[in-house]
Structure formats: C-alpha cells, structure tokens
Design brief:
mainly alpha; elongated
C-alpha cells in the first residue's frame, strides 16, 4: 500500500479537515482517503460513455396531477413573442 504526503496545507484548511474528521468520527488520514476515493469515483462516472444515473431515483415520482401542473406552468415558455424578433 502506498503513502502520499500532502505539503503546504494552510492552517485554515487543516483546521477544517480536523473538524470534519472529528464530526465524522474518523482520523484526518481516513477522511483524506474518503475524499480521494470519492473524487475518483465522480471523475470515473463522468468519464464513462454509458448513461449517467444520478437522477434515476427521481424518475417516475410525479403524479399525473404534478405532471399536468408542470406542463401548464411551462406552456408560456414555448410561446414566441413576435415583437422581440423584429
């Protein structure tokens, strides 16, 4: 297993890292590992050619009434104001 040393962390950032680690009940080292893994997962998700699934949990959640209200509310957005295009 490899090791990484991060140098020149300013005091304010270091203090924030310590507070966050304490709040999560982990060491700063563990927190940094979590941040690195999380950052790489985000990058990997965006780098794939497949479908993006972050909003899947929201799909199919609207009732028919919700859909009708939404569509009614955006109807004016599809109307062209001819005076603006002269």
């Amino acid at each position: 297993m490899g090791s990484i040393i991060v140098r020149n962390i300013d005091e304010a950032t270091h203090a924030r890292l310590k507070r966050e680690a304490d709040a999560r009940g982990v060491s700063v080292n563990t927190l940094m590992q979590q941040f690195i893994r999380g950052g790489l997962r985000v990058r990997d998700r965006h780098a794939t050619d497949g479908p993006y699934h972050d909003l899947d949990s929201l799909a199919g959640k609207w009732s028919e009434r919700d859909e009708a209200e939404f569509l009614a509310s955006i109807t004016p957005l599809s109307q062209v104001d001819e005076a603006l295009w002269r």
